[in-house]
Specification:
The complex is a heterodimer of chains A (599) and B (80).
Chain A lengths: L2 H7 L6 H6 L1 H9 L6 E9 L4 H13 L2 E7 L5 H6 L3 H6 L3 E5 L18 H22 L4 E4 L20 H17 L4 E4 L1 H8 L1 H4 L2 H7 L8 H15 L6 E4 L10 H4 L11 H17 L4 E7 L2 H8 L13 E5 L3 H12 L6 E4 L3 H10 L4 E2 L8 H8 L9 H21 L4 H8 L1 E4 L8 H10 L12 H9 L3 E10 L2 E14 L2 E9 L8 H15 L4 E6 L11 H4 L3 E5 L5 E6 L10 E3 L3
Chain B lengths: L2 H16 L20 H15 L5 H6 L3 H12 L1
Helix pairs in contact in B: 1-2, 1-4
Chain lengths: 599, 80
């Protein structure tokens, strides 16, 4: 089976039956890829059968460039593994823990004797049991933990009252979920996998399957394994920085009903007075809501620019031109526009989602730029649901910077046009009135620091991924220099954009992490970070600063960074891994056009 | 449907799920004689057979279907 075919099988929405049947060949095709996989150790703690969960999860993760190595609890021993511990699990040292429990694991299903039993008391005991489990988990593991919530039970004992009457099974499930959500709010490495939502989506009628449970102890109908595994994989890929970042949109018959070039601005519909127009409006509202979480929007449309802008400025439009980081309205092939957008926005083209009502345009992009995910639809009413269930923008952490991201991208576009009007680059930089705020690893920035560390690929010298816990460890242990800086200028605040971590080794300081957001490249922030790093090394009486460059498919731009800053090459191997060093005494602080907050 | 027709469609399923060459899929093939046909494969196999023929097997039927001959018997019986 060809790789493209395999990826098509796994692309949402997929044919579950076909996926079950072709799993073997699909896996082979994915594994045969000549690429570097991100290897992750995933512990699946199950309350029921887990083998097939693991095998389908593997497929979806491979398709995202993640190669999983699994640990699976002995049958249904999730609780014991966490509370009593298990040497095999400890030795496995997971990067991520997934708890595969369902409503089947509620105590009520284990009871033999119900005479005179008190459901209220049973619920309390069950909540205590699960809290004990969750406490043990979070104490043992500082890695991300994904925990299923509880779906509706197989039947409603009290019919319609079952959900709100304290004797109901639905009520029981709600109580467990309440306790779970309370626990989550205090633990930011704990993530819910919403199987209650998933099961409702797929259909409760078929979710609970008597044969599957009684024969194989499958918590739900095996036919839903692909959907389930896909759903979990959305969270995992988001944790490893593989969310999509931008939605690229067509205009005619996508954002509005009609063709603006033919029908005129007055002829297109996107308001509430017409049903089809209102469907487009619903999509616009959904997209606008996505931007509040940091998703970027851009236009890729075959239109005259003035017509495109006129359409977006329509009185009923929920998405005026300033909501878009970039608008490409021209008669060029859309694939050409895509490449330019990736360049303009400084984003990997694999972070794009493409929404276009024309299947021919989607097909061309799929062929020419397969990394761009195209959302298939026949009817504009389907789009929001498709994007939602595709899980492209799964939220795993939410920082203030996310809310402002769309605005930041637009500000950046403004900076680019300001740049064109200055003859001298330094004068241009000075005109920006940049201010750096060296917040370092203050508590309120740790989530953002972890986020940046896990998703920055281009300006990243070592591409080492660390969890929030690892970073806190560096901050506390005294043998690491931890630098993190925010950058603002007269157009706006870029937020936290650069992180450097140096590790003391004998009489040298080794740079184990140096990354920066591409948005602020070549403005002097690199110099500022280096100045601080070398000063820190000098403070500790260290002789040298050592930097490593570990090449990846995405970080070519920093291959010669150390060379440009006067480091000497110590050694370089055939793969391009390089070690550079700089004598602290040889370094003179570099001049930048950035002023320092508080200095 | 004839036995031959069922066998032909089954061979395709076996080829996909257990990655066995379709010329090896004969009526005599069973869990005992085929190394690749293990209990985990059995689950996926039967689900795919259900999907292929649009049938649903009961727990008893599934417990019996450990050879190609038996699968064909069951499919034909349910079709009738």
């Amino acid at each position: 089976m060809e790789l493209q075919e395999a990826k098509q099988f796994l692309s949402y929405p997929f044919d579950s039956a076909l996926l079950v049947r072709k799993r073997g060949p699909i896996q082979k095709a994915l594994e045969a890829q000549d690429k570097e996989f991100l290897e992750k150790r995933i512990a699946i703690l199950g309350g029921s059968t887990t083998q097939q969960v693991a095998s389908f999860l593997e497929l979806f993760l491979l398709s995202e460039g993640i190669r999983p190595v699994f640990y699976q609890s002995s049958y249904a021993r999730f609780w014991e593994d966490a509370v009593f511990g298990n040497p095999e699990l400890d030795e496995f040292n997971p990067d991520l823990v997934f708890v595969h429990t369902t409503i089947r694991n509620a105590k009520i299903f284990e009871l033999r004797d119900v005479e005179g039993f008190d459901q209220g008391k049973l619920i309390e005991e069950d909540i205590a049991r699960f809290n004990q489990f969750w406490e043990a988990l979070t104490t043992k593991f500082s890695c991300p933990i994904i925990q299923n919530n509880f779906e509706r039970p197989p039947y409603r004992l009290l019919g319609n009252q079952d959900i709100c009457d304290a004797r109901g099974l639905g009520y029981y499930a709600r109580a467990l979920n309440s306790a779970l959500y309370d626990f989550v709010s205090g633990h930011d490495t704990f993530f819910i996998h919403d199987i209650e939502g998933l099961a409702a989506d797929l259909g409760m009628l078929n979710w609970h399957d008597s044969e599957d449970w009684c024969m194989y102890k499958n918590a739900f109908a095996a036919a839903f394994l692909p959907d389930y595994a896909y759903s979990v994989s959305r969270i995992i890929k988001a944790l490893y920085g593989k969310n999509k970042k931008a939605v690229i949109l067509d205009l005619d018959n996508t954002l509005w009903h009609g063709v603006v070039g033919d029908d005129g601005v007055d002829g297109i519909l996107m308001g509430t007075e017409n049903a089809t127009g209102e469907q487009h409006r619903e999509l616009q509202i959904y997209l606008r809501n996505l931007t509040t979480l940091g998703t970027i929007l851009a236009v890729n449309s075959k239109n005259e620019m003035e017509n495109a802008v006129a359409g977006l400025e329509h009185p009923d439009s929920v998405l005026p031109p300033e909501k878009f980081a970039s608008i490409k309205a021209n008669w060029n092939p859309k694939s050409v526009n895509m490449e330019e957008l990736a360049d303009d926005l400084n984003l990997g083209i694999d972070s794009f989602l493409f929404v276009d009502d024309n299947p021919a345009e989607r097909e061309i992009i799929s062929q020419q730029i397969p990394e761009v995910e195209c959302v298939p639809f026949d009817n504009v009413g389907q789009v929001a649901a498709r994007i939602d269930r595709g899980g492209y923008f799964e939220v795993t952490s939410y920082t203030e910077d996310d809310a402002k991201r769309a605005e930041m991208y637009r500000q950046n576009a403004q900076r680019k046009s300001a740049e064109r009007s200055f003859a001298d680059y330094d004068s241009y930089l000075a005109s920006l009135e940049m201010v750096a705020d060296d917040v370092d690893f203050a508590d309120e920035y740790m989530a953002r620091i972890a986020q940046l560390t896990n998703k920055t690929n281009q300006f990243n010298l070592t591409t080492r991924r660390f969890t929030e816990d690892d970073m806190k460890g560096f901050r506390e242990d005294g043998s690491h220099v931890c630098l993190a800086t925010k950058l603002a200028d007269k157009f706006g605040d870029n937020g936290l954009v650069s992180i450097v971590v140096g590790e003391e080794q004998g009489n040298t300081l080794e740079v184990i992490l140096w990354l920066m957001s591409c948005r602020v490249m070549k403005r002097g922030l690199e110099d500022h970070m280096l100045n601080r790093l070398v000063a820190a090394a000098a403070d500790r009486g260290l002789e040298k600063v050592v930097g490593r460059y570990l090449p990846t498919a995405k970080n070519k731009m920093v291959k010669d960074l150390y060379k440009d800053y006067g480091f000497t090459l110590v050694e370089e191997d055939a793969e391009g891994n390089a070690i550079w060093e700089l004598k602290v005494s040889d370094f003179a602080p570099r001049i930048t056009q950035i002023s320092i907050e508080g200095a | 449907m004839t036995r031959e027709e069922v066998l032909e469609r089954l061979s395709e399923v076996f080829e996909d799920v257990l990655e066995i060459d379709d010329d090896k899929v004969t009526e005599e093939l069973s869990q005992d004689t085929c190394e690749d046909w293990d209990s985990l494969g059995q689950i996926t196999l039967l689900v795919s057979v259900e999907n292929e023929f649009g049938l649903k097997f009961s727990a008893e039927e599934m417990a019996e279907m450990k050879s190609v001959a038996k699968i064909i018997d069951t499919v034909l019986a349910k079709e009738a």
